[in-house]
Amino acid sequence: MAKKLSNYSQLLIPLIAILLLILFNLIRDPEFFSVGIAANNNGFPVLQGNLISILNGASELVILSMGMTLVTAASGGQDISVGALAAIAGSVFVKVLKSGSSINGGTVIAGFILCCIVAMIFGSANGTLVACFKIQPMIATLILFTCGRSIAYWINGGATPTLESPIITAIGSFIPGIPVPTPILIVIVTGIVFALVFRFTNLGLYVQTVGINQGAARLNGINHIWIKLLAFIILGACCSVAGMINVCRLSLINHETILINIEMDAILAVAIGGNSLGGGKFRMIGSVLGAYAIQMLTITLYAMKVSSTDVKAYKAIVIIILVVMGSPVVKEAVGNFWNKRIKRNHAAVGKGAES
User: Fold this and answer.
1) Nearest Cα to Cα of residue 322 among 13, 61, 62
2) 311-347 pLDDT, tens per residue?
3) pLDDT tens readout for residues 191-235
4) C-alpha 328: how far from its chain's center?
């Protein structure tokens, strides 16, 4: 029972953050979360509303936070190059699509497979620096963070090519006849894949074991180098999916702006989700909730007519509060407070029974 309570307590901070944002928005605007159906430009009925915007807009961040959770748990550090790596993957995706005479299902699949392979190779390079050369993750990934967008720029010769295809539009917005935005469906598929991997393999257990005690993991026959490397490779695959979604949203690739600063939000999603940034035990659902909390905060600020230049400052204030609330010091203080109250109540009950 205590173990189950401990597991659920990890989700307390993101759940409280989401609940407070929901209550605030309902008080400010009772219709804030209303969902309607309207016809898009092609005449198909689609879902619209702030709730859909939150779920849709957070898609790339949710996928990256899933991969970031594994890297954080296994290596005890964070990858700050995910935005740059997504830019590289997006550039490769566009390069493949523009190399053919037309964009069809085959070229889209080929483009995604190739961009996924390239992103996983770069991810393995980051993982090699961390796992084999024992470089701190943030320093190791600083290299790609610095040069990644330049590499994305070179891939397409410095151009900003646009994509015009119904398939690209469907991936970035809506599939004809399906009212739910496609990025939300991609998030669901990605979550199912992770759930199946954790259900039918020991990856989650191995990642946590390596993150908690690398020496003990080695003595139990777990190859800590391979586990860390695999975590970075999986994050690379997540970057390719996020990069593809963003390219399809805009129908173009801009190496300078694609998913800019998203690495910071991904790290914060992991932290808000109750996962230790020092590695070890993790809950993927916590990071997902953290990502949606960040996106809900962003949409709320925009709905309040806060300028885009001020949004980051307000987000920073709220996020600091959330991170402090989830810090070990605060958790320990709250735990001690509740333990004292429970002991006091038990003592009062005992005295009442004696009398």
Assistant:
1) 13
2) 888 888 877 887 777 677 877 787 788 778 777 776 7
3) 999 999 999 999 999 999 999 999 999 999 999 999 999 999 999
4) 22
- Give me the count of residues in the chain: 355
Angstrom distance (rounded) from CA 181 to CA 96: 25
- Contacts of residue 43, defined as CB under 8 A and 6 or more positions apart, other chains included, come to none
Low pLDDT (below 50) residues in the chain: 1-6
Q: What is the pTM of this model?
A: 0.91
